[in-house]
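Replying to the earlier thread about multi-chain prediction with a worked example.

Input:
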Amino acid sequence: MNEPVGIALLGSGVVGRGVLAILSEQQDLLERRTGLRFEVCHVVCRDVNKNADLAKTYNLHTDTTRAVSDPRVKIVVEVMGGLGAESPINEAIRSGKHIVTANKALLAARGNHLFPLAKKHGVSIGFEASCAGGIPIIDALTRGLLSNRIDSLTGIINGTCNYILTQMTEKGQTYSQALSEAQKLGYAEADPTLDVNGRDSAQKLAILASLAFNCQVNERDIHITGIDTLQADDIRFAEELGYAIKLLGIAERVGDSLSLRVHPTLVHHGELLADVNGAFNAISLYGHAIGHQFFYGRGAGQMPTASAVVADILGVALGIIPHTFARLNIYPGQLEPARVLPFEQLRSRYYLRVSAADVPGVFADITAALGKHHISLSGVSQKESEEDVSVVPVVVVTHRATEGDIQAALKEIDALATIKSPTVCLRIVDVPKEFA
Amino acid sequence: MNEPVGIALLGSGVVGRGVLAILSEQQDLLERRTGLRFEVCHVVCRDVNKNADLAKTYNLHTDTTRAVSDPRVKIVVEVMGGLGAESPINEAIRSGKHIVTANKALLAARGNHLFPLAKKHGVSIGFEASCAGGIPIIDALTRGLLSNRIDSLTGIINGTCNYILTQMTEKGQTYSQALSEAQKLGYAEADPTLDVNGRDSAQKLAILASLAFNCQVNERDIHITGIDTLQADDIRFAEELGYAIKLLGIAERVGDSLSLRVHPTLVHHGELLADVNGAFNAISLYGHAIGHQFFYGRGAGQMPTASAVVADILGVALGIIPHTFARLNIYPGQLEPARVLPFEQLRSRYYLRVSAADVPGVFADITAALGKHHISLSGVSQKESEEDVSVVPVVVVTHRATEGDIQAALKEIDALATIKSPTVCLRIVDVPKEFA
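Result:
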């Protein structure tokens, strides 16, 4: 038996405590599997008094430099979160320590700097926990799927949004009702902005798309619409049409370009993605050789995230992640920028809800505007609004059309005197079909 | 750029040709990602004349020894299949070559010998393609999920059976009709015995369960029932109750023991496994930290299998698989034998179809026999048979009961004069429930 692998844990919050729990409770199992023992040499927190319980077992303090410079420490585990973690990670890399992190915001914003810095210093960054929590998707993209040209990657990668959408769908709640329930249950932060506005999903999509398509994807390359303006009516009408509404992160090859977007999306109930409910995450992938592949699991929460962190600790300690990291050329910072498909060139099917006054001729005006912009319809139906009885919701489903044409047509439609509020425009995802 | 990695390909069938296709067509992509080039130094086949097309591009011959002893060859890729592959693999290992294989029959039967032999000779065995084709489940069990105590692993791991069951369900076909359609479409072999009798699934389950539970699981440890005796009536009655019938491989922790079985199983339509249709495979896992995790993809076929083979070639060439293989203690041949739960101690819910004569008192006799063996019922209904109008099918769904009690009760029931043919007994899977 070799000496234990020294770890410095930066952060003593929910995930950090999950990591400590797995390392101590599963010590025998981990040792049996890997022949390795681990020693948590430092737990760095912001406030020692608030974490007094940890001080009984661990070397608890607030001095990052002392922790990352300790020669016994081989792996620095960063579970503080936020952009403020850059400085300690930088320091750790420069001290020759391997990094394990769950920090998608930092990697999405500063991966271009951190990945090359780690390569330069001969250390690795394990970041399985940064995307989709316990689902080993980084592992799959850097190993099992490496033989495939990936054609599309579509994911439900924010559990908070998926929980809210599930509540709105299953219980008919409004967005605000579902959000406040999610907050009560701890699925949503007190400030849920980054989750519900889609930015958290976009940060994860940037990381995943870089790995899958081997080009540099930044958050600003991604068209982002959140779920915070979604109305219960549209969830209901979509269900009537056979679709669930999910917040999807989508990266797909279109010719030589990459279409990159996060938005609420209609997913047909025949698709596995439509059945992903509650706080679960899922990723649906199409590769040129594997065809369709689908991964499902918990994308957040203490133990699933800690599971991914500890898997990375093992991967680093076993030499697997350092080996992968040193050899593969698929990490941000060493890739060409993505050739991003301009959003107005997107081709999709659309769900439109027009809020029309109940007067003769309004149908004709709407369809004329769509026709003028080459948009053909696959269905139109007049609904009853539960929210406002003075308008008539008209739901239009289009055949494939171009985003630019749709936006031009909507501008004209919304300018009509008979239209009472801006038309709701949602995209319908058509996943590649395969013969089973 | 280093010199190319030399490969000897043993087998020039469907999968072998898929491997050659990926290595040649995706050469640039693979080189960009990994910095590696590959050279197929030998293609070994049984009959050179039948593979004349390959001779234009490759060094095609029938001499295994020449291929595996070539000093340029670093990786021997075995896609011949069958137990006859043991001898060339043995030879390759002794020549210091890494092995990549898709051969589950060989690994299930001889892994105890081959894995330790490879360790002894300082080489590795990549076997992702042996289970569930393109789904990177071996990768997940040896890396991403390594931090979890696995509590259960349940899979649809034979695409042929799943295709047949899907046809029976969706089109109301009989087993023979569905089988012959599967054969026409190439989803089933001319001799489908190993698929439909459940042995192929058991071989894969033995490999997966060994890795997941870190104990030696052999095919003979597994209770096996195939789909070859399944009747269309039961698929229909199960659907009416809200269940799909799937051939599942199940390995689950029960106290200190492992319940190991392959049998047609009723899966509730609320579960993702119930929605796995056609030739697809899927694996549903529960880990102590990750909770529920689900993997879905193509389990067989030329390109999905080749995808896994090439991923392993890359993993070996990058040093990732050799590193994993050398360090982990989770491979067959170095594990304690599984403590197998005796099948009669299994506790499950049951679906029973009793074929009764339409005479007074028969219901009472059946329920009396079940009650005598402590089996309580959650539902009973009398059906109409489409196959035989002279009997009355009585479908009984039980609460959790013990297999031994069920078998004892069925013995008594089937001995009744009013019972016209042996009672059909299927198990209903209850997957662990989690709060989402």
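Chain B has three domains: 5-136+304-327, 139-296, 343-428.

Feel free to reuse this layout for your own posts.
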